[in-house]
Amino acid sequence: MSISDAEKMERSTDSASLARALQRSAEIDKAIDEDPTRFRVLTGDRPTGHLHLGHYFGTIRNRVLLQQRGVETWQLIADYQVITDRDGVGPLKERVFSLLADYIAAGLDPEKAVIFNHSAVPALNQLMLPFLSLVTEAELHRNPTVKSELEATDGRAMSGLMLTYPVHQAADILFCRANVVPVGQDQLPHLEQARLIANRFDKRYGRVDPKHPVFKRPEALLSEAMLVLGLDGQKMSKSRGNTIELRMSADETAARIKKAKTDADRVITFDPVNRPEVSNLLTLASLANGEAPQDIAERIGDGGGGVLKAVVTEAINDMLAPIRARRAELEANHDYLVSVLRRGNERANEVAEETLQDVLAAMQMTYY
Question: How confident is the model at residue 59, as a pLDDT?
Answer without folding.
Answer: 87
